[in-house]
Amino acid sequence: MSRAKRMAGVGMLSVMLGSVSLPLLAEEETGDFNPGEHAGAKRLVAELESDGVPAEWAKHQLRQAKRRQSVLDAMEGAAERRLAWHEYRDIFITDQRIEEGVAFQQAHGDALAEAESVYGVPRDIITAIIGVETYYGRYRGSHPVLDSLATLAFEHPTRGDFFTRELAAFLQIAHEQRVDPTTLSGSYAGAMGYPQFIPTSYQAYAVDFDDDGQRNLWNNPVDAIGSVANYFAEHGWQKDGAIYYPAEGPDSAPADLAVNQTTPPDTSLNTLEKAGIAPGVSLEEGIEVSPLVLIQEDGKPSYRLGVHNFYVITRYNHSHLYAMAVAELAEAIEDATRQVQGESDL
After folding, report:
1. d(CA 317, CA 231)
2. What pLDDT shows up at residue 20?
3. Is residue 133 flagged as an active site residue?
């Protein structure tokens, strides 16, 4: 079977410890989400049981989950919500992150080349995603995933339904793979492994890219490379397509133009012209774009025009700042790699 078709089912957490024993149900630790007392946890147990997860096992796990105020605070203070472009860029586009991106490509060149061939996603984009998400696997998250997802599922004021689905997926995965969910760590939002997949994405897009029988995004960069590429391909990445184009515009962002959207591009060149924005290159007639206004350190805006592949990057993280950082880091890694290759040819 081709790797392009090896979608993950719920079989990826076998990557952790193989046949790890389930926790003893006799150990009755009580956290903040005891299904006997918490209505949301009780409903979740019933839903999981209908999907084949034993109720007593699910109850035991939820009894151990702790409410984490730090998780709720982190959600409110996410960098994408509070930073200007120049501040956000300075976090991710650094000499060290670029150099380590080159090193990551050198270490995993074969896997990146195969992922590019199978899925049509450039190696530089795959590398940049892993570089932005976890610094090439160095920082994979220290928050207990069970606690994070339970806190967000039952305590978040607006996204409880979303995180309840993620918590359910996480517990389904852990049960089927006989992994103790209390041992798994990730981001404050429950994202896991090299590429920081949330549980439903882990279920849907992880692939066994090195054919070892495991879908291991926790410790296997090769599987992570294939899985990131698969994620982008499934979300409609256009091979050899542009991500954005440069543009020029007024000193103040147009007030009557929707900018920095993470929806499919829908702004015509005629609309841009009326707003005083001009593409920096010649574009085909009829193209639709997403106008981007990026605030620089001097407080002035710079302009870019996102196209379809820019939108695809925002499917990974619904932020125009995130997508722009990935695109620029990929460009910087590509340039640095060429320089290193040129020097080696001397």
Report:
1. 12
2. 36
3. yes
The pTM score is 0.86
Q: What is the pLDDT of residues 25-35, one digit of tens each?
A: 434 445 799 99
**pLDDT 10s digits, 305-318:** 999 999 999 999 99
What six digits make up the tokens of 110?
A: 């074969």
In the chain the beta strands, taken as DSSP E runs, fall at 143-144, 185-186, 244-248, 267-268, 278-279, 288-295, 301-306
CA dihedral 102, 103, 107, 109 (to 10 degrees): 10
How far is CA 86 from each of CA 5, 56, 80, rounded to the nearest angstrom? 40, 50, 12
CB 14 within 8 A of CB 218: no
Report whether 183 contacts 61 (CB < 8 A). Answer: no
Tell me how crowded residue 77 is: count the other CB atoms within 10 A of its CB: 10
Give the integer Cα–Cα distance in Å for 53 and 35. Answer: 15
Contact 89, 323 (CB under 8 A): no
Amino acid in position 75: M
Q: Which of 116, 133, 155, 166 is catalytic?
A: 133
| 3-class secondary structure, 288 | strand
